[in-house]
Structures are given as C-alpha cells and as structure tokens.
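Lecture notes, unit on protein representations.

Consider one protein chain, 302 amino acids long.
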Amino acid sequence: MTHPIEGVLPAMLTPMRPDESPDLEAIPALVDYVLAGGVHGLFVVGTHGEAYALDAGEREAVISAYVQAADRAGTQGRRPPVIAGVGGITTRASIGNLRAAERAGADAVSVVAPSFISITQEELYRHFRAVAEATQLPVALYNLPRATHLSIEPPTLARLAEVDNIVAVKDSSGDLNNTIDYIRLTPDDFAVMNGNDALIFAALAVGAAGAVAATANIAPGLAVRIYQAYRDGDMAAARAAQMALIPLRRCFSLGTVPAPMKRAAELLGLPVGPTAAPVSPLAPDADEALAQVLTELGLLAR
C-alpha cells in the first residue's frame, strides 16, 4: 500500500484557550510555520498534541482543523499529509477514534499501544490488527513504552507488518537496538520512523524512513536539514545538524511534556496557549534555560 509516512513529521502541538479547550483558529499559524521549514507532513493529536486531554468531539475538531489548514496550504504548493492519532485503551475506543479521524479527512492514522491495562503481545497483535482492518487508511503503529508501559516487541511488529495497511511504526523507545530490530524484521517498504529527536541521524543511518519530531514544532528547518543532508549523502552536514538539535531535545527535561515545547512556541510568538492540567508551566529557571537554547539556535533574538 502506498502511504505518506516518511521524512520529517512534526508531532504537532494542540493550541488551547485559557479554559483548555482547543483553539482551532490558531492551527493555521502553526501549520504555516512548520511548512516554511520544509517538513513532509503533520502528525497530530499524539503525545505532544495532548490527545489524552481531548474529548471525542474536540479530537475530531482538531484533526479537521489541521486537515483544513493542510488543504489551504495545498492551494499554494504541496499539500502536507495529515497523520492523526487514534489510539485508545480498548479496541472499541480506538476504532471510535478512527471513525472520527476518517470523518475529519485524515490521510493516515497512528495507533499507540494501549495504556493502563497490562496485555500480552498476542492481545496487542489482535488489537492493532482489528483497528487496521476497520479502515482503508494507512496505519502507523506507535511504540511509546515510557508512557504505556507496554512495548511492541520486534517479532510482534514483524507479524503486524504483514497486514496490508499497517505500513509504518513510530519508535519512541529511545533504544536504537529496538529500532534496528524493527528495520531488520520488516519489509523494505515498511516505514520505521524514529521518535527520539536526539537519534534522527543515527536512525537514518540504520535504515529509518524519517522521524516524527516534536522539536520540529520549534526548529523545523533544522530537523529537516538532518534528513535532507543525509538523503543527499552529506553525512557531515547531517551530523552537524543533529548535534545542533540535541540541546533543544534536552529541554524536554525542563518540565512535563508538552510544556517545554509549548513554552518554546510561545516564546517564538506562536499562539499555542497553556498545557492541560495537571501539566504545569515551566519554572522560572527552566524558562530561562529554554530561552537560552532558543537564542543559541538563532530562533530568539538576543
């Protein structure tokens, strides 16, 4: 199955109003900003998109707003594909989220492993397969063991890659050995996407198709430079761009995700608003450290 999952896809933020409802009118500005940096698509309502904080209607509205912004961008050039997160704790909930993404016009969907419950690899396989078989859209799986406490083991992924419309995985394990096993055990046309922004260059070097990068909300051009330089065979430039991006990735430790990247966006004048409680704003010293990194990257005036 042909699919749009490759290159650098920002893990897009969900702008919010002071009451923590989605600020749909702010989405076009975010899309314009990342597209100006050359990104290859939009990964929406994931972890940095605060999917966990959105009710069903809000989730669909956010996806729809991103699709509309992508459509508008398409009238001025290349339309970026929109990959929407649809994962839920149960298979039924995931399929319900999938239907909302279909109605909203998503080009592909991403399904994260269920959280809260402890299931076996066989149960995980049946879950992902059932969600994929409920749609004609391309499906990307999402391995996020830090949050779900459940990893998609490489042999399980190998089985799932046999399903026609399961075409990709985002590996946010931060374990390059796991990424290598994913690549080794899946077909050449299966897209293994790196999910740790400090490892984009390393993942490309072992065969990854690209990256889903939260830092690309803030420094899209730099993230794209890693990918493009690698594809052009300029390893020195790709490595240099990766080294330059790492301090921004390290800023994730300054607060609870997605607060650091939301604050970075605000410092750049992008209208993203607050994070949903209980996630708190950055402390003053963390705010200063973040501003220093943005300044050193040339994103914030001295």
